[in-house]
Amino acid sequence: MTGGTFSTTIDAPIERVWAVVGDIGTHGSWSPKPYQFSWTGGEPNQVGSTFHSKGSAPGNPNNENDVEITERTEPTHLAFVANDPQGVFLNSWDLRTVEADRTEVSFTVRFPKMHGMAAVLAPIVFPLVGKPDVNRRLAMLKQKVESGS
Question: Tell me, what's the pLDDT at 25?
Fold first, then answer.
């Protein structure tokens, strides 16, 4: 299955990192590609809430998903599922204090079993395009939190 876990360490206390990661409304501000979302149901940022996202994926600059937050343990864990024509993508964020003012952030993405050309291309394209994008996203998150912007 395509996907993986990616990590960075941010020079900020876990509560400050969580204020950004735990608020879906901030995610577009630390995305390396255009990203928009709108809440479609439930209490924003809480388990069971839903939103519609628009972003860019390899081969589809207008990728859209219906997303549901499935887990939230403040200030350490956020998970959601994104419903895509290929299936359900699993996404999770895990935060861990490594020192009083340093936080390790891990992002995990798991792809569904792909079909058709996507099944052939995803294992090739994700390492070439997806992984660098995730690493850029983590770098942007680090910069945003550490700068306080």
Answer: 95
Phi-psi region of 112 (alpha: psi -120 to 50; beta: other; left: phi over 0): beta
The pLDDT > 70 percentage for the chain reads 91
Reference 31, options 60, 1, 62, 55; nearest CA is 55
Give the closest residue to 23 by CA, choosing from 133, 121, 145. 145
Question: Residues 88-107: pLDDT tens digits?
Answer: 989 999 999 998 899 999 99
All domains of the chain in start order, with CATH: 3-147 (3.30.530.20)
Rounded CA separation 8/101 (Å)? 14
Inter-residue contact 51 to 59 (CB < 8 Å): no
- Residue 122's pLDDT is 67
For residue 142, the number of C-alpha atoms closer than 13 Å in the C-beta half-sphere is 17
Indicate the pTM of the whole model.
0.89
